[in-house]
Amino acid sequence: MAPVIIAPSLLSADFGRLQAEIEDLEAIGADWLHCDIMDGVFVPNISFGIPVLAAIRRYSHIPLDVHLMIQQPESYIEDFIEAGADILTFHWEATVHVDRLVQKIHIFGKKAGIALNPATPVEVLRDILPFIDLICLMSVNPGFGGQRFLPYITQKLLRLVELRMQTGSHALIEVDGGISPETARQIPAADVLVAGSSLVQAPDRRAAIQALREAHRPHRLA
Question: Can you list the domains of the chain with their CATH numbers?
Answer without folding.
Answer: 5-220 (3.20.20.70)
